[in-house]
Design a protein that fits this description.
The chain is built from 10 helices and 8 strands. By secondary structure, the protein is of the alpha/beta class. The protein folds into 2 domains: 194 residues, 3-Layer(aba) Sandwich (Rossmann fold), CATH 3.40.50; 86 residues. Helix 1 crosses helix 7, helix 2 crosses helix 10 and helix 8 packs antiparallel against helix 9.
Amino acid sequence: MANNDKWSPHLRQEDTSRTLRIVLIGKTGTGKSAVGNTLLGRNVFESKPSPTSITTNVQIAEEERFGKTLVVVDTPGFLDTNMDKGKLAEQLLLCTGLACPGVHAFLLVFSLRQRYIEEDQKAIEWMKKVFCENIMKHTIAVFTDKDVIDRDGSSLNRYISKMSAELRNTIKSCKGGRVCISNIGDKREEAAELVINMVRKVVRVNGGENQYFRTELFDEMTRKIDIRIDQILAGNDTILEKISKLEEEMTLLTGEDPRLQSKRRELEQRIEGLRKKLKNECSARKEATSETTCDVFTMFYTAIT
């Protein structure tokens, strides 16, 4: 992997006190998407038991919860050892773009129903190289399927003690701590509040709610995305002008003449079509992120391989 200051981590200060940006990372089948749904309080990300990844592309959703705007980024199986490097680079860039200007906390998701092998640890080490070692200061280890240890009368510590020394060290290096939760039934709200409180602690320990983890890549993506968002939203002005003119034209079409009624219906359809073209900031960000990813893909792929 190339050693380039462009990917080195540092903190940026900005007024984000009402926003928490959270990125979910883990291998296929750990319940990343279910964790995201639990945090958001609604089923946004597709989640069901499957040997192959249900989430094939980075997704983003936000919700007002616990006095904050939660922005949750769900990722495909970044830690799957069989993911094509080109696809992985593309999805990492999308993740970076959607999490701009930076991430408050990463949730490294494990499942108590899965076995973890040496290849899993190698994948985690690779992730740390891509995002930089400093990512662990902003990471919480989240274990799903709490019913497994509840049923056996066991504990999370006992489960972790049976993992390899390398994986135990990785979990220990998650400075945000570790937690075991359930994504089903009436325990979801309790789990969400528990994890969000841990995220708040991560933010506080790392300098307060106006600071977050990002790299030079985040800065570059943010700059490009913001420019493109402005361009996309500027198109709304032109559309609104057209709508206004059509609405003025409609006010002149009064009376019961069938031809006038037909013209009114035609104008209404045109106005409806134009309204569908209006972009809100969320859709503009997704469009801008996708386009920006294509622009910087080659540079990023070269840096991580």
